[in-house]
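Issue 218. Parser rejects a valid record. Input:
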Amino acid sequence: MKSILFLLLVLPAVIFFVDNGSRIMVVAEDDDADDEIVDVEGDGDETSVTDEGSEDDEASPSTSPDADTVILFTKPASAGSGANLELPAGNIVEFLVGFTNKGNQDFILETLEASFRYPMDFSFYIQNFSTVAYNRIVKPSHQATLFYSFIPAEAFAGRPFGLNINLNYRDLTGNVFQEAVYNETIQVVELEEGLDGETFFLYVFLAACVVLLLVIGQQFLYSVGRKRVGKKPVIEKGTSNPNDVDYDWLPRETLNSIRKSPRVPKQSPRMRKAKRSAGFDD
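Output the parser choked on:
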């Protein structure tokens, strides 16, 4: 009886543990299956991306072994060459591209384009210049020269950029080619010129200001000096000679009476005193 009760208590526990273990095993197997599926799908994606990249590389135009190009910068003359090229900002840049046909069939030079690229990543465009169409036919064993010009922006002065110049051409069978005539890092510099109009007018304005300050200072010093010195007092002097007196403003009767009256001679104070003393004695 006791053994039956023990089996009844132990058997459910054993069944429970066995059931959980089988479930755990099944879940583990399912996880492995999922991991394997994910890995397989990832491999398929990588393969597809690689195939697309190879297709893009094959689709991009390449250069022709029967063509040879050379570039020559003509303006500015002191620009340099290669990686030491320095282009003036805000000024025109001119160059010539020479093309030589070394094959047995004609080439058609279609377009020539130039652009500024980010020096650390040439796939990043900074400034695009005009694309010039030529459509010039170059026969076998012949040469052709193309002219191109552009102006770097003034805001790019003092910075390095990647200069990319591409020549697009094709042959008579319809094959399209593209050659990077120039693909180097250059330096855009600020051109130091002589006295320009803006600087000239600035100097003229400064000179006018200096002259105006000098005039104002002179007038100020002159006014201060006059105040310190002051005005001299005006002393009125009478007429020492009676003949110099103007009597024309008097009436004629008064003027005749003055002329007829006897003139009293001037006497000194001593004579007047002597006369007075003589009169008192009488």
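Fixed in the parser; the record now loads. The first helix runs from residue 2 to 59.
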